[in-house]
Automatic annotation (TrEMBL):
Chief site of localization: membrane
GO cellular component: plasma membrane
Entry keyword annotation includes Cytoplasm: no
Bilayer topology: Multi-pass membrane protein
InterPro entries: CASP_dom, CASPL-5
Family: Belongs to the Casparian strip membrane proteins (CASP) family.
Transmembrane segments: 40-63
Casparian strip membrane protein domain location: 8-88
Stated name of the protein: CASP-like protein
Source superkingdom: Eukaryota
Record keywords: Cell membrane, Membrane, Transmembrane, Transmembrane helix
Subcellular location: Cell membrane
Subunit structure, interactors included: Homodimer and heterodimers.
Length: 117
């Protein structure tokens, strides 16, 4: 397979995984610090999804370190397919949860709005 910048088992890939893990952890911190976050089910699911993202990114960062230490590439087609599906799945879940949270919030705002006279 052709070696790509930021691919699995490269220094750039390791840096990107660490950045992904840090951003997911920071977003969890921001969401948890919001007042009343536990009142919204979709918000709680989004936090859980981001927690899984942190674990996935950290695990792949550790795999990158291992690959760099033993100087072996990770360009196995089956392994790369696993990375693609593993990276794609949390993004889909986070997007669906965000949209659900938006619709839940808009529905609450409409419910509390006084009728026009």
């Amino acid at each position: 397979m052709k070696e790509l910048i930021g691919g699995p088992g490269t220094v750039c890939g390791f840096i990107l995984r660490v950045a992904q893990c840090v951003c997911a952890a920071a977003s969890i911190g921001v969401m948890v610090s919001a007042f009343g976050f536990s009142n919204y089910t979709a918000f709680c699911y989004l936090i859980a999804s981001m927690g899984l993202q942190v674990l996935w990114s950290f695990g792949l960062a550790c795999l990158d370190v291992y690959s760099l230490r033993i100087k072996r590439d990770l360009y196995n087609p089956v392994l790369v397919s696993l990375f693609v599906v593993g990276d794609w799945r949390p993004v889909e879940g986070e997007t669906c949860n965000s949209l659900f949270h938006f619709h839940e919030r808009v529905g609450l705002e409409k419910a509390h709005k006084p009728p026009n006279r």
